[in-house]
Every structure is written in C-alpha cells, then in structure tokens.
Amino acid sequence: MSNLTFVLSDETLNSYGFIVKTKGIYLERFKANPVMLYMHERESGVIGRWDNIRIEDGKLLADALFDESDPLGLKIKTKVEGGFIRSVSIGISDVVKETVKGVETVVQCVLNEVSIVDIPSNQNSVKLFKKGGKCVYSLSALDAQEVDLRSELIDLLELDKNVDDNTILETIKNFLKSLRKAENKTEMALRLGLADKAHERMLRTMEQHDPREFDLYIDERRKEQEQAIVTLVDKAIEKTKIIHYDRAIYEEIGRELGFPVLRKLLATLPTAKKPMDMIDGGQAYGLRAGWGLDEYRKFAPEELASNPELYRLLLKKEGKSEDGFTLEWYRKNDPDYLLNNPDIYERLLEKQNNTNT
Q: Are 111 and 187 part of one and the same domain?
C-alpha cells in the first residue's frame, strides 16, 4: 500500500503563513480514532481510516485505508489511485504558538482528523479548529474571543453554574411564555390602578424588553397601593361605613380588584347608623334620627311613598321644596322615586301639562 502513503504534515511554511512543528503534534487521541474525512466535512461521514501512523525525518506519515462500502469512500479511493487527488490536510486544535525566527510556529497541538482534499495550501495543508469545533485558517483567528453560548445563557438567565441543559431550556420556555403574556400583565396593572393609562406605552415596552425591570416596577407600585388600601379602609371604619371586623374583606377586594374599585365601592356605602337610629324610639316627627332624603330613598322607599308628609318634611329639612323639582329633573336624577311614588308622578305630570297648555 506504499502508493497510498501520504505525508500528513511536515515543517515547511504553508500558504497561511505558519509552520507546524511535527514533534509538537499530539497523536495519541488521533491514533485511538484515526478517522479520514473528505474536505474536513464531518457531515459527509467517515470515508476511511489512517494506518501505520509514524514520524520519519521530521515528517508525519500515514497509510490511507478507504471504506469501499461507502459510496464516497470508494469514489475518493478511485480518484486517489488514479492520481486525480494527491493531497491531504490535517485538522488540529488546542494550539500553542510561538514566533520562531520571525515565523509564526505551532509548537504544540492536538491532531483531530486528517482529510483527503482536492487543493491543499501545500503538502501539509492545515485546518485549525477552535473550541466548539469552529474552523479557522489563520493563527490570529484563534485569539478571537470564543463565545460559550451555554455559559452566556446561564449568566443571562442567572442560573446556577452547574445547571443541566433541560433546566436551561425550561427556563427559556418560561421566559418566552412570560413575553407572550406581556400584554395581559400590562392590562392587569392598568386595571388594578398600579399605573396610569398615560404610562401604557412605557409599560408595554418595559414588559417586552426588560421584564425583570417591569416586575420590579409593578412590585413597588403594589407596595404603595397596599398602603393606600389600608388607609382607605381605615377612613371607612372611622366614618362608620364599615365595621372593623370586615377590614380583611375590603382589603382583599382592594388587592384583587384594585384600589379604584375599592374606592368606588366604599363611596357608595352609607354611613352606618347607631342602633337607636333604627328603632321607633329614635323617631322624631316621623323621621328616623340621622336619616335624610337619600337614606329613605335607598333603604325605605316604601315608607317614603306611603308618607307624603314625611317626604315634604325631608325636603324642608334639606332646604328644598317639592315644587323645586320638575318632572324632568326626577326623570334624569331620581327615576326610582317616581316609580315608587306614582301619586307624586301624577301630580308633577299634571303640573307639566298645565304649564305646556
């Protein structure tokens, strides 16, 4: 098989401008798996192996044994034996370089594979491999900062250094899901009153491009709103709108539905009455002590409807007169009162008709 012996490498200057020292080539890894590729393309598969690997006169030699069961291996073997292809190229990594007599020189390296090539840089054509398998041609390219994607992801996601790949992938999936929910989270913040509508665009931008900062911002607003909710409930208790036993319920409403909803709810609640206000002994001239026209309309409309004198008394108490309200006014501002007091409605309607005629 002497005709299939190749010089894998020697110490002549190649077309890339550097020399590979033969004694500095680490061969043990390659000898354990002496694969032969075509044009350094792993995707094309192994087309053979190298046997009888040795160093003679400062040159690295080996004999080619092609895999004839592989179509590409058989094809390349035919071309080599026919003299159409005569060149090889070594693929090396873990390079240590020095400048020797003004020439860049690889003084140490690891041999990974040897390929049959169509056009070498010379008889010792070289393919340089960086960590991760990336190929370069110049020694200077080896100095370029190599980005370790896995390490970069771990740092960006703030994961433990010893995390496994499945956890990295799961964290990325969750992150992408959170991005897809960005609009809902922004709308939730607006609905709960954690931010003003005027800040919507800012919130959406922050949510999409800096979700961590968005969460911090919302957390701060939640803390502020929590204090506002407590203060609002305190005032409601002070005004006897609610009793202190119900504090937790209203605070929960504020947290779940938002400060604006709680504020509206408490504003609609009447001031709680003392027990004496709710019994006959608290009545004076037919009035429930402390009750005005609004309380009667809300809590005892039937009593108001059945007692015209009471209605007029309440109007007088509030500095108003029945004649001061037109039918149109009631229709716009207090239609329920007209519904519950048909006699008053008829009187006002008759008055309006007489005025129109």
A: no
